[in-house]
Amino acid sequence: MKRRMLPSIPQSLTVFAFWLLMAQDVSAGNVLLALLLAWLMPLLAARLEREFARLGRLRGGFRLMGVVLRDIVVANVTVARQVLGPESRLKSQFVWVPLDLTNIHGISALASVCTLTPGTVSAELSEDRRYLLLHCLSVDDPDALVMQIKSRYEAPLREIFP
């Protein structure tokens, strides 16, 4: 019975604490709302179909972090030049990236990396999880962009999330 009322005590405690931290007020109303959310959110989350992360080789993760950090810095400079330059030189478009990743956690990591890199934003994941739609601020060769994403980000993520 206790398991049904509170499916995850750690999750309830986390929701409770985060609500009070976000509200920045420990009034009676906020505490009651935090208690309600701490009870309700784990019940709702327990009904969701979960896919647990399978982790593979993590050693490529540090190299991937270095690549992503470098790409973020380079993309910031590139985007700044593009935005400050003539608008006619921007070639914004949507690009579908075919995915070899099947693990939803790896796909989420790839979408996050693409969004973190200035100039690209993850827009949609196809229902079959085989394509990721990106909006690119300026792209000359969509095929080259796809190959770059697949080699620089997706390949290491496939090792981490088999």
Structural key phrases:
mainly alpha; three-stranded antiparallel β-sheet; 3 strands; globular
Could you walk me through the main structural features you see in this protein, from its secondary elements to its overall organization?
By secondary structure, the protein is mainly alpha-helical. It contains six helices and three strands. It has helices at 2-5, 9-23, 28-47, 60-84, 104-116, 142-160, and strands spanning 93-98, 120-125, 131-136. It has a three-stranded antiparallel β-sheet, with helices on one face. Helix 2 (9-23) crosses helix 3 (28-47) and helix 4 (60-84) packs antiparallel against helix 6 (142-160). The longest helix is centred in the middle third of the chain and has 25 residues, at 60-84.
